[in-house]
Amino acid sequence: MSRTARVAVLGGGIAGLSAAWRLAKRLEPSSIVLLEASRRLGGWIESTKTSDGGVFEHGPRSLRLAGNAGRASLSLVEELGLGDDVLPVLPSNKGARKRLIYGDGRMNELGGGLAGMFRRSALFSEPLARAMMRELVRKNAPACEDETVHQFCERRLGNEIAHWLADPLCRGIFAGSSKHLSMRSCFPKVYEYERRYGSVIRGAVMSKKERLRYKNSELVKRSKKEAWVTWSLRNGLESLPNRLGHALSARGVKILKNKPCTSLEINNNEIKVHMKGEDSAVRVDSVVSAIPARNLSSALMANHPTLASHLERISAVTVAIVLLEFDGKVLPTEAFGYLVPSHQPSNALGVVFDSCSFPEHDRTGSPSTRLTVMMGGHWFNDLFGGAHSLTEDRIEAIARETIADHLGIQAKPTRCLVRILKDCIPQYNIGHHETIGAIDQYIEEHSLPLTLVGASYRAVAVNDIVDTTMQAVDQLCNKRMESWSC
Ligand SMILES: Cc1cc2nc3c(=O)[nH]c(=O)nc-3n(C[C@H](O)[C@H](O)[C@H](O)COP(=O)(O)OP(=O)(O)OC[C@H]3O[C@@H](n4cnc5c(N)ncnc54)[C@H](O)[C@@H]3O)c2cc1C
């Protein structure tokens, strides 16, 4: 006989909130409980709004639109009634579309669009189009199933592209090293293109386009019509998790903040979820875990040590961010920002020119410039000797030295916010797909009522997390449809 299922969602970041939102459409909302370790929802999505109207993002600052993943978060925004708050970056904002790479003491513009491919940039000895033409006919197969992003790009596209494009791109997305990150796990589509079509370029042109979902969303339709480049929200991206939290509570989902899950006891299809500071456990039929893999590993260590040891292998890196505001317009050029390759002598991974993409987030009144310096990642300990030995003053000083050196900005900032984001970006290093395979197999073989979502596993971008989480919850409900009243 079917009955209402009880589900616990662990973690109130964007993955946990999206999971609870989807579950609340399929199940009785009051049978869903979400546990969040900290006092706030949103995880790494956090925005500071200042009294003079400025908005500063500590985590993600803009979301892209490509594919179903891009549509997923936009249609979620619409469902939550946040459509009027969307700030799109339109194609007319040429500055926000410009991407720069810092190298050999100067800013180098990456040729955008088709025309840019045929121009020679100072970083490359030939136009990018020529390397791509060669890639089309190159027949060198990979030496093994998994290779680093660097090895893959060097083999297919040549040494210059591996050094000047793939390297800074990995620093920009994963704060990681292209010489450790796995091509297969970090860029699965590109990896598949080569496997299926013998060439990345051929694969990109010939692969079957994914079946588009979220077709009925008016916001998605508008974004296509106006060809948005990226988007944010008027009061910062944190409005999205905040609104999700309110909407879930209004529907009757129980949200418990300040309640870290300490252990999971799984017996005969019932899970006891233990929380810090609570003697009695929450009993549920199923758990959706949206917490970092290493935290889940600790919660499973006593009951499922083998699974815990697989989860433990998924590491994450620490990033220091410095948000700066200056009086007036101080940037030498309009751009999205710039990335710094690892082979250049610099403490920065990259700098985002926030005011160029979203001038709406600048303070009201007199003109100002906001920018963000990102540092550390894979190189954090080598550069700074561990998070505990680093003071905020020291980080601010390093950030200001960086922008003085790279951008010639010597002025004193009118505002400076420093954060050390500990273990904030998971690293899909070589062997990550084997770890994921072992985790999936263990859960399957032991019939554990456990679903894993969030940045630790398959994608770190917010859009991808929202999309894959919705799909994982649908799969869970479809599988249990007969025993649960979905
Ligand atoms: C500086 C920075 C910039 C970024 N920029 C972008 C960008 O521009 N675009 C983009 O798409 N992505 C960006 N990302 C990536 C993206 O923001 C993250 O990958 C995403 O927000 C992760 O969401 P999540 O829900 O998987 O995890 P998290 O945000 O880590 O949420 C997990 C939650 O679980 C809670 N938790 C942990 N342990 C427990 C426990 N035991 N019990 C209960 N709760 C627990 C945590 O407190 C947290 O709230 C950026 C990330 C960072 C750090």
Can you put this structure into words, describing what you see?
The chain is of the alpha/beta class and 486 residues long. It has a domain at 7-44 and 238-314 and 429-479: 3-Layer(bba) Sandwich (FAD/NAD(P)-binding domain). Helices cover 38% and strands 20% of the residues. It is built from 19 helices and 19 strands. A hairpin with a 2-residue loop joins strand 6 and strand 7 (106-109). The model has no long low-confidence stretch (mean pLDDT 93). The structure holds flavin-adenine dinucleotide.
Tell me the distance between the termini. Answer: 13 Å
Order of adjacent strands in the largest pleated sheet: 7-6-15-16-17-14-18
Note the beta-strand portion. Answer: 15-25%
Could you tell me the radius of gyration in angstroms? 23 Å
Largest sheet: 7 strands, mixed
Shape: globular
CATH architecture of the domain at 7-44 and 238-314 and 429-479: 3-Layer(bba) Sandwich
What ions, cofactors and ligands are bound?
flavin-adenine dinucleotide
Number of helices: 19
Uncertain runs:
none
Question: Helical percent range?
Answer: 25-40%
**CATH secondary-structure class of the domain at 7-44 and 238-314 and 429-479:** Alpha Beta
What class would the helix/strand composition place it in? alpha/beta
CATH topology of the domain at 7-44 and 238-314 and 429-479: FAD/NAD(P)-binding domain
- Average of pLDDT: 93
Quaternary state reads single chain
Annotated CATH homologous superfamily of the domain at 7-44 and 238-314 and 429-479 = FAD/NAD(P)-binding domain
The total of beta strands comes to 19
